[in-house]
């Protein structure tokens, strides 16, 4: 039985990432199994998904559905059991440890729930750290654009302990964007923020895509956060279970509810559930 929940405002609408769109990342029959034998957990059970360049995509799904695992495999932070994960045209599942380390340093940016700033460094030093580590010069106009967009101009000499949570996360976003990586992966970026700071951070992430042309893939369990994205990919039981274009909090909640109902109901053969907005 096909239990995929496809939800778009128009059923004839083309897929969110048509073949003519350049892809920032993609997974092909990607699997990840933790453990062996009877205790094996199929965290990813054959995932096929495309992520367009210049788009803000949220990955959502119930706890344990494989969101973090998918992100880690796409970002080269963990290895696949089988299948392939591509960053641009690079098959990262074929890379050795050294090449993966370089890929993470040069082509990918990260934003974590816990900010992960260095406490002894100022905001400016934290932002430019990736360039420092790569031995690359700071692109001053780009630095200024980020600082201005993120509203950090008056905070550059402050250390993380002198900044609010929202300001710290904005520094972390600037750090993730400073080297103009092909993709920024954001893992529950608003998980430690109050709703107002969270909304600010999500607005900045969206602006960095719409106005600065960046590509963001964000894992979240929050439908309101996901609604800032251009598209929501739904995961359930390690598989792609839905794809929502132009999400709203309501359409994301409806998609999650539909997943829950599929989980609770016995399989019905011969039907493909379709969920309207
Ligand atoms: P999500 O991010 O959607 O909550 P995860 O990707 O973290 O889901 O986990 C998917 C499944 O894989 C879960 O059943 C989880 O318990 C399992 N899992 C994740 N990481 C490990 C690990 N290191 N060892 C064993 N099982 C793991």
Describe this structure in words.
This protein has 8 helices and 11 strands. It is of the alpha/beta class and 277 residues long. It has a domain of 187 residues: Rossmann fold (3-Layer(aba) Sandwich), CATH 3.40.50.300. The chain has a 7-stranded mixed sheet with strand order 1-11-10-4-9-8-7, sandwiched between helices. Strands 3-2-5-6 form a 4-stranded antiparallel sheet, with helices on one face. Helix 3 packs parallel to helix 5 and helix 5 packs parallel to helix 6. The protein starts with a strand and ends in a 13-residue tail after the last helix. The C terminus is likely disordered. The site of adenosine-5'-diphosphate has 12 residues, from strand 3 and helix 1.
Strand order of the largest sheet: 1-11-10-4-9-8-7
Order of helices and strands: EEEEHEEHEHHHEHEHEEH
Task: Please report the first level of CATH classification, the CATH class of the domain at 5-12 and 55-64 and 100-268.
Answer: Alpha Beta
Q: Structural class, from helix and strand content?
A: alpha/beta
Please state roughly what percent of the residues sit in beta strands, choosing from under 5%, 5-15%, 15-25%, 25-35%, 35-45% or over 45%. Answer: 15-25%
CATH architecture of the domain at 5-12 and 55-64 and 100-268: 3-Layer(aba) Sandwich
